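Researcher: Re-running this chain for the archive, since the previous output was lost when a drive failed. Same request as before.
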Amino acid sequence: MTVGDPVLDVICIGRSSVDLYGGQVGGRLEDMSSFSKYIGGSPTNISIGCARLGLKSALITRVGDEHMGRFIRETLADESVDTSHV
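Model: Regenerated structure tokens:
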């Protein structure tokens, strides 16, 4: 790294969530028997998209110390997003 090179290209701040999508397309929520989970929240999606484009991205957010929070942290790490401020 030379003088002036950024440590990070993008820092996103905001909400992280887990989106659940019903496995039965067009069905009522009451009739769903399975769901798929995906990471969500606009800043979270942007940080992942930037990392996929080769930028050094970080996310500043809060998540719980439970199964959903672990899923978010692990997914961000798998996508090469800096999680030092999650």
